[in-house]
Input
Amino acid sequence: MSLTTTTPSDPVRGVGELVALLREARARRRISQLDLSLELGISQRHLSFVELGRARPSRDLLLRWLGQLDVPLPERNRALVAAGHAPAYDDSPLGAPELAEQRAALAHLLASHDPWPAFVIDAAWNLVAANAGAARLFAVLGVEVAEEANLLDLALGPLAGLIVNLPEVAASLLEQLRAEAVHEPSLRERLALVEAAVADLPAPTGPRFPPTLVTRYASTAGELAFLSMFTTFGTPHSVTLASLRAELMFPADDATRAVLAAEPSPQSSGS
Output
């Protein structure tokens, strides 16, 4: 297990970092000091003193505070360290021995979804693992994907020219990225690239939104259509696991189903 017990060497800097983290987290949630103090069962005066750096919260209070504001686990660890406490959440890499059962669960999920494509990505949209169905999809699209590819880079690059309904997909992706970038600073540079790339696209047309977004690709075997579902670990207490999600792609029509079922199975990438 990888849990550092380092505390800030500069108390003033640590207080400043804690104050910034807490203020930003409350601003993101758009909750007043009074409402938050009522949720935490403390006085507004004490909450204000903590946010001003004039009082240091206990470990228990700070954990409840961060949880109430739904602060991502990496930021919770940083806040705890800044307050002089040990971090609470494991940050072991996915390959660590203590995450063996979780890796097995991911591998089972990917394998059981075959022959349809499935991916595991992290918070920055880096490809962590994929099944044989994903390799089959990339093959029929004629796209080469490196093991450590970033799906946003692929969307901005070779996949962009293959997406038949690009305006609808781009609008949905942009909305999702804007929400995710609030908690994930590493996405902000790619968000700017996506915003620039889609700036001149026409607005999606149609009288109403469909039940789910269907992404349509032009492939060597004809047009392929997919809808997606995402799944995550329930109540993760690991920084690494909290960043992961699996995207399960399902054929949205019989033609797509027939193409993927008929394609040979390339080697999948493991988790």
Q: What stands out?
A: The longest strand covers residues 222-231.
